[in-house]
Specification:
Oligomer: single chain
Radius of gyration: 21 Å
CATH superfamily of the largest domain: PAS domain
Mean pLDDT: 78
Structural class: alpha+beta
Number of strands: 8
Largest sheet: 6 strands, antiparallel
CATH architecture of the largest domain: 2-Layer Sandwich
Shape: elongated
Helix content: 40-55%
CATH class of the largest domain: Alpha Beta
Order of helices and strands: HHHEEHEEEEHEEH
Low-confidence stretches: 1-25
Length: 245
C-alpha cells in the first residue's frame, strides 16, 4: 500500500522540477558537470524522503490493520456506544460504557504512539462514533457519511488511504488511513486514523532540514498539500513558479 502512489510520484517530480529550476536560476554559470552532480544529489535526496514518507504511511496502515483485529475494538454490541446523530452542543453528555472505554483506551494508545497521527477513531453501521479523544465540539455527526467511512466501505478487507478531506469541527485537512470491520463478510463498522496536512507539512519541514532544500507535496492536479509556507497550501504549484496549468 502507498499513499495514493500518484501523489508521491507527483511529489518527486514536482520537487525535482523546483529544485532544478532553483538551481538553474541560482547557478547559471555552473559547469555542466557540477550541475549534473547537483541534479543527482537532489534526485537521491528526493528518493530518500519519498521512501521515508511512504514508510510512515505504510507503517500506519499496517498498524491500523492490526488495530482492526483487536477484540476490544471488534466488540459487537455497539447499541450503547456514543453517537452524535442528534447531538446538540448545549445538552450533549458523554455516557461511556466500560466496553466503549476499553476501545477508547486502545485508540488513544495508537494515537499517542504515532506522532503524525492527529486522530484515531471508529464508526459503526448504527451511527455510533468512538474517538481516542473527545471531539472539539459535540455537534451532530454521522460517521457513515464521511469520506473515510465511505472509501473504506468501497474496499472492504483492504487498508484504504483516502483523498484529502476537511475536518468537520476544525480547519484541518486530513488524509485517512482506514479499514472496514467485517464479520462473516458483512461490514459493521470502520476503524481508522488521520494524518493532517499540518502534520505532513511538519514532516516535510523536518525532511528539508536534512536535505537542505525546500520540499513540496502536491496531489495529482498540482494542489499544494504540504509546504513550509502554509499560506501556499491548497494553491496550485504552478503559481509558485509563475506559470499556468
Amino acid at each position: 500500500m502507498r499513499l495514493q502512489t500518484r501523489i508521491l510520484l507527483r511529489f518527486i517530480l514536482v520537487g525535482l522540477t523546483i529544485l532544478l529550476l532553483t538551481g538553474a536560476l541560482t547557478y547559471p554559470n555552473l559547469e555542466e558537470q557540477e550541475r549534473d552532480s547537483i541534479k543527482k544529489e537532489s534526485i537521491t535526496q528526493l528518493e530518500h524522503i519519498d521512501f521515508a514518507l511512504t514508510y510512515m504511511i505504510d507503517e500506519a496502515g499496517r498498524d491500523v490493520e492490526q488495530l482492526s483485529m483487536d477484540e476490544r475494538v471488534r466488540y459487537p454490541d455497539d447499541s450503547n456506544f456514543t453517537n452524535f446523530l442528534n447531538a446538540t452542543e448545549e445538552t450533549f453528555v458523554y455516557n461511556i460504557t466500560p466496553e466503549e472505554q476499553a476501545i477508547i483506551d486502545v485508540l488513544k494508545d495508537f494515537q499517542v504512539s504515532h506522532p503524525y497521527v492527529n486522530s484515531c477513531y471508529m464508526g459503526r453501521e448504527n451511527g455510533a462514533f468512538v474517538r481516542a479523544f473527545p471531539r472539539a465540539s459535540p455537534t451532530q455527526y454521522d460517521p457513515r457519511d464521511r469520506p473515510w467511512y465511505q472509501q473504506a466501505l468501497g474496499s472492504p478487507g483492504m487498508v484504504v488511504v483516502t483523498d484529502p478531506y476537511r475536518s468537520v469541527t476544525t480547519d484541518d485537512m486530513n488524509i485517512g488511513i482506514t479499514i472496514a470491520l467485517m464479520d462473516n463478510g458483512t461490514v459493521y463498522g470502520v476503524v481508522g486514523a488521520d494524518v493532517t496536512l499540518v502534520g505532513l507539512t511538519s514532516y516535510m519541514i523536518e525532511a528539508g532540514k536534512v536535505s537542505g532544500r525546500d520540499m513540496i507535496l502536491t496531489d495529482e492536479v498540482g494542489t499544494v498539500l504540504a509546504f513550509r509556507d502554509t499560506g501556499l497550501l491548497f494553491t496550485n504549484v504552478s503559481e509558485m513558479m509563475g506559470g499556468e496549468r
